[in-house]
Amino acid sequence: MGLETITDPVFFSRLDNLELRARGIVEGFLHGLHRSPFVGFSVEFASHREYAQGDDLRHVNWKLYARTRKLYVKEFDAETNMNLHLLVDVSGSMECASKGISKLSYATTLAAALAHLALKQHDAVGITLFADEVVAHLEPRAKPHQLEEILRVIASTKARPKSDASRSLHQAAELCSHRGMVVIISDFFDDLPAITRGLDQLRFRQHEVLAFQVWDPWERHLPLDGNICFTDLESREEITTHADGVREKYMAAIDEWRGEVSRLCLNRGVDLIETTTDDPLDQALVDYLVRRAKV
Question: Domains, the chain, ranges and CATH?
Answer without folding.
Answer: 3-28+81-294 (3.40.50.410), 43-78 (no CATH)
